Amino acid sequence: VIAGSEKVYLAQGIDIPVLLNRDEDYNIDYINGTISFTNKNIITNRSRIEVEYQQAIEDYPNIYTESDVSVKIGSFVFTGLYRREYDEKENPLTFSMTPVEIESLRAAGDSSTVLHTYADTSSQGSYIIQDDHFIYVGEGNGDYNVTFFYVGENNGEYIYDPNIKAFSYQGTGLGNYSPTKFTPLPEKDEFYGIGINVFESLGLNIYGSNFDKNTFSPIDDYDNFAKGYSVILNKKFDFFSVNGEYISYDEKFIMPQ
Questions:
Q1: Which of 5, 41, 58, 254 has its CA 20 to 30 A from that of 16?
Q2: Residue 166 main-chain phi, psi, to 5 deg
Q3: Cα–Cα nearest to 245, from 230, 235, 256, 255
C-alpha cells in the first residue's frame, strides 16, 4: 500500500459511508496491514468499513538512462550505444530496511530469496519463544518485540486475535500473518554495444551486458558480465545478392528490452 493513498469509509447499517480522517478517526500500520479506530468511532456488528488504496507495483524507484552515437568517416560508419536500468536501493517504495536487514542483503549474494524475521530481544517485549514460534504473554512480560506482516490468506502462521489485541500462532499455512518476510533484491542491468559498417554491406557488432541481481552485495558478481557479437553481410551483385548474419552470445547474455 502506498502510504497516504488510502481512503477509509465507515457506515452504520445502511447509512451512507462517511470518509474518515487519518489520526483523528483511525490509525493505519502499513507494515502490518492493520487499521485501528480511535474512540471517536464506535465499531459494532452493524458497522460497515470500506477501504480504498493504491498499491505500489515496484519495490524500488527504477532509473533508466540510454545513450547512442553514430559517426560516419568515408565509407565507414561507427556506432555505439549504452543502456542502464537500476533500482534505487536507498529509497525503497513499499518498505523500509533496518541496518540488520541491509547486512543480510550484503551477505546474500544473488540469492533470490532473502527472508528476515523481525523479532528484537527486549526486556519490555510482549512475546516469548515456545516450540519454535512466538507466544503472546502480555505487554512488557515477554522477551521479544515482534513485527508481523500480512502475507495473504493461508500463507502465514499467525492470526490477529482482537480479544488479546495481539497475534496468535495457528500453524504453518493456517494464518495470514508472519514475522518473516521476503526482502526484494535491488537489481542493475547494463548493456554496451559498439559497431562498424563498411560500404553499407559488411557490419560487425560487439555487445556486452552486465546484470547484477543484488546491488547491495559483491558476492556472486563473477557471472554478471556476458558478451556477444554479430557479423552481417548484405552484398548486391548484378544478377544476385548475398545476405547473411552470424550471431554468437554467451548463455547469460541479456539484450535490452
A1: 5
A2: -155, 180
A3: 230
Rounded to whole angstroms, the Cα distance separating 202 from 166 reads 71
Write the DSSP string, 177-207.
EESEEE-PPP-EEEEEEEEEEETTTEEEEEE
Q: Under a CB-based contact definition with an 8 Å cutoff, are residues 176 and 73 in contact?
A: no
Give residue 1's pLDDT: 64
Question: DSSP letters of 155-171?
Answer: SBSEEEETTTTEEEE--
Query: Would you state the pLDDT for residue 147?
Result: 84
Instruction: Determine phi and psi for 39, rounding to 5 degrees.
Output: -65, -10
Q: For residue 122, what is its C-alpha cell?
A: 527486549
Residue 46: C-alpha distances to residues 10, 11, 14, 50, 123 (Å)? 11, 8, 9, 13, 40
- Domain boundaries in the chain? 7-52, 62-90+186-249, 115-182
Mean pLDDT of the chain: 87
Given the C-alpha cell 500500500, which residue does it identify? 1
**How far separated are the first and last CA of the chain, in Å rounded?**
28
User: Using CA atoms, how far apart are residues 103 and 238, in angstroms rounded to an integer?
Assistant: 67
Cell numbers standing for residue 50:
470500506
Q: Please name the helix (run of DSSP H) or strand (run of DSSP E) that holds residue 103, with its range, or none.
A: helix 99-106
Tell me the pLDDT tens digit for each residue of 242-251.
889 999 999 9
Whole-number Cα distances in Å, 162 to 28, 29, 65, 118:
16, 16, 49, 21
By CB atoms closer than 10 A (0-12, 13-18, 19+), residue 173 is exposed
Q: How many residues does the chain have?
A: 257
